[in-house]
Amino acid sequence: MEETIPWSEYDEDDLDATQRAFADVLADRAGSWNVDPLSTVLMPAPRTPYRRLMAYLDIDGPERDRGVLTVGCHFDGSTVRGDKLHNQDFALPRLATEFALAATGDAVAVANRAADWFEAILARPLVRREWLHAGKVYAVRYEYADTGRGLGEGFEDPLAPPEVQERLAAEGVVRGRGRINRSGLGEPDRAVHVRGNRPAP
Predict the structure, then answer these.
(1) What is the span of the domain harbouring residue 161?
(2) What's the pTM?
(3) What percent of the chain has pLDDT over 70?
């Protein structure tokens, strides 16, 4: 896939007037967001497999340098559809998720709806649950504190307590294959606020 560019930059020849209006609203609204501008990406329709203008936002876990969630929208000139996107081909999911957005209207109106949608996602309280052994983090889980919905997890076998390593090996769970059963790890040792509104204590 060709190079992507931030919402605030685009080649005039790549967008028609309607697409420019949509992109300009997003770029203007995103100026106040607490995100790396390079995480806000615009892909002109000819550069996408879907032949629609696409704008997406990568939400990262900065302390651990890992992607947590990619959300974005496809705009066809009058309708915008958004949701959690596949983080490689940026396809919308076959079945809508809790992140789904759909709006129809003129470019400025639907771009403002899309910007509201991105802002609402950024405002949700994202936390990183951490499990420690011997002072080192061996398991993490990114989740929304308001719902407990998990977005991503990680596990480092060599850092885990021996009994946890043995149990997971017996269960056939190896790094990169299967998912770690959070309940089997017990309560996390700490929760780190990543972004969004801070959850109530």
Answers:
(1) 126-195
(2) 0.85
(3) 87
